[in-house]
From TrEMBL:
This is Type-4 uracil-DNA glycosylase. InterPro entries: UDG_Type-4/5, Ura-DNA_glyco_family4, Uracil-DNA_glycosylase-like, Uracil-DNA_glycosylase-like_sf. Gene3D superfamilies: Uracil-DNA glycosylase-like domain. Residues 38-213 form the Uracil-DNA glycosylase-like domain. It comes from the Bacteria. PANTHER family: TYPE-4 URACIL-DNA GLYCOSYLASE (PTHR33693:SF9), TYPE-5 URACIL-DNA GLYCOSYLASE (PTHR33693). Coiled coil: none annotated. Keywords: 4Fe-4S, DNA damage, DNA repair, Hydrolase, Iron, Iron-sulfur, Metal-binding. Pfam families: UDG (PF03167). It comes from Streptomyces coffeae. Belongs to the uracil-DNA glycosylase (UDG) superfamily. Type 4 (UDGa) family.
Length: 220
């Protein structure tokens, strides 16, 4: 089965995990992506933002949220009164999944499968444990499912404050249960890339900002 667990370092902090993640072959997505895009930001962040997977720019640059969706997200954070320098940014899946457009070279984002999301979970768990954020913003359905389980629905749950279960059961493979974030909250919201693509972009953007304000209040 797809699983990142064998690639995790037995000990060490964020830097050790980032180095190890660069060599992850826990699922086939490493084959076509340029590099692993591990999380980045403040190691003492009280706020963590979790997206779906790196996009084209992130895959080239090796950093999360540096493309158009990242620009929109950073603007929304400022508008909600949140300081991006004190946040940690990451994704549910650490490799870019894409198809090549029929006649061009443009790489078109493809959503990761549930298997790929669960294969990558150990990296997200490690980030939660090592950072220990008080509030985790789940950006879109993939991040929501990764953090809260497959029954998560962004339309139903967005804009609410969800307490993370105190004890998450370990995986079938016996992977250690994450303890961090155990007392934290998840705030699900829209994915910034979905805001960019939407017809009613202004309204969606306002929705993203208002959900981020909820995260800001939870941190205050
Ligand atoms: N979209 C994501 O979900 N993550 C990124 O890092 C960039 C775009």
């Amino acid at each position: 089965p797809y699983d990142a667990t064998p690639y995790l370092p037995p000990r060490g902090g964020l830097a050790a995990h980032r180095r190890a993640a660069a060599g992850c072959r826990g699922c086939p997505l490493f084959e076509n992506a340029s590099q692993t895009v591990f999380g980045a930001g403040s190691p003492s962040a009280r706020l963590m933002l979790v997206g779906e997977q790196p996009g084209d720019q992130e895959d080239r640059q090796g950093e999360p949220f540096v493309g158009p969706a990242g620009g929109l997200l950073r603007r929304a954070l400022r508008e909600a009164g949140l300081d991006e320098a004190q946040a940690y940014f990451t994704n549910a899946v650490k490799h870019f999944k894409f198809t090549i457009a029929p006649r061009g070279k443009r790489r078109i984002h493809k959503p990761p499968s549930l298997r790929e999301v669960s294969a990558c979970r150990p990296w997200l768990n490690a980030e939660l444990r090592l950072i220990g954020p008080e509030v985790v913003v789940a950006l879109g359905a993939t991040a929501g499912k990764a953090l809260l389980g497959p029954s998560f629905r962004v339309t139903k749950d967005r804009g609410t404050l969800i307490r993370l279960p105190g004890e998450r059961v370990s995986g079938r493979d016996g992977a250690p249960a994450p303890t961090a974030g155990a007392e934290g909250f998840v705030v699900p919201t829209l994915h910034p890339a979905a805001v960019l693509r939407a017809e009613d972009r202004e309204a969606r953007y306002a929705g993203l900002v208002s959900d981020l304000r909820l995260a800001a209040r939870a941190l205050a």
